[in-house]
Amino acid sequence: MHKIWKVTIVLLVLSAIIDKVFAYPKSPVQSVFEANEIVPDVIPIAPYWKVWVTYATGVEVEFGNELTPTEVKDIPFVWWTCDDKSHKYYTLAIVDPDAPSRVEPTSRNWNHWLVGNIPGNDVPSGETIADFVGAGPGLGSGLHRYVYLVYKQPSRLFFNEPRLSNRSAVNRTNFSITDFAKKYNLGDPIAGNFFVAQYDDYVPILYEQLGL
Ligand SMILES: *[C@@H]1O[C@H](CO)[C@@H](O)[C@H](O)[C@H]1NC(C)=O
Ligand SMILES: *[C@@H]1O[C@H](CO)[C@@H](O)[C@H](O)[C@H]1NC(C)=O
Ligand SMILES: *[C@@H]1O[C@H](CO)[C@@H](O)[C@H](O)[C@H]1NC(C)=O
Fold first, then answer.
1. Which of 62, 99, 156, 202 lies at a CB distance of 3.0 to 4.6 Å from 107, suitable for a disulfide?
2. For residue 177, what is the enclosing H or E element?
3. Whose CA is nearest to atom 7 of ligand 2?
4. Which ligand approaches the C-alpha of residue 170 most closely?
5. Does ligand 3 have an atom closer than 6 angstroms to the CB of 168?
6. Level-2 CATH architecture, domain 27-209
């Protein structure tokens, strides 16, 4: 083999090894968000950290595990690491990008819960913008992704938004958490998690509550 080719091959192999060893590693959250297309369907950049979510029925959200609407019908306990005392306020959201279905998501996203001005990770002390509504995937619409996102706020904020009740479906569709984050200068989400769910017999009860 010609010497120049040998040198080139050695250099290519070396640079591949250096890339592998020194590249900034993706976190498990970032890898799973990208593999499940939450990036780019919901957000342009995946969060680094995990959000812990436990429902009263005992089930936990764990990066795409399947839960039933019955299991996730009530407000969960949500927790994330927030040791940065200079940034005291956080925003929490749950959105379903697969409304009305993942194959034809014409109402992307459905706004399931939006709480701002959360002091640290004390969600019940935050300011509710959209009341919590559990998962309500339509009959025959397949699995939907339910995405939890936490943003660090630059300061305490005034949210100039209509307050959405859990007794109505008005203004829940076509919601972009990314546009919301831009509007309020929240940057990219710092933590996230998600589960998937499909129709079960709790869904008609939920639709009745929403007046659908
Ligand atoms: C949501 O967006 C779709 C298309 O992007 C549009 O057809 C529909 O009317 C919108 N729905 C509402 C409630 O604005
Ligand atoms: C729905 O959104 C529109 C436009 O932002 C607003 O004018 C209206 O008051 C909202 N309705 C409810 C019930 O939140
Ligand atoms: C609706 O939201 C209110 C206020 O957040 C809460 O007290 C109530 O339990 C919720 N109702 C349902 C049916 O989820």
1. 99
2. helix 177-183
3. 162
4. 2
5. no
6. Alpha-Beta Complex (3.90)
24 backbone dihedrals φ, ψ, rounded to 5°? -65, 120
Note the ligand closest to the C-alpha atom of 108. Answer: 1
What is the tens place of the pLDDT at every residue in 158-187? 999 999 999 999 999 999 999 999 999 999
Please report the DSSP string for 89-157 in residue order: EEEEEEEESSSS-SSS-TT--EEEEEEEEEETT-GGGSEEEE------PPTT---EEEEEEEEE-SS--
pTM for the whole structure? 0.88
Which ligand is closest in space to the CA of residue 169?
A: 2
Q: Which of 70, 131, 163, 164 to mutate to test the pocket of ligand 3 (most atoms within 8 A of CB)?
A: 131
Tell me how far apart the alpha carbons of residues 193 and 128 are, in angstroms, rounded to a whole number: 20
**Pocket lining: 107 vs ligand 1, CB cutoff 6 Å:** yes
Q: Measured in angstroms, how far is the CA atom of residue 212 from the centroid of ligand 2? A: 17
Does ligand 1 lie within 6 Å of residue 106's CB atom?
A: yes
**Domain ranges for the chain:** 27-209
- What distance lies between CA 45 and its chain's CA centroid? 11
pLDDT, one tens digit per residue, over 60-117 is 999 999 999 999 999 999 999 987 666 689 999 999 999 999 999 999 999 999 999 9
Task: Pull the structure tokens for residue 165.
Answer: 């009740």
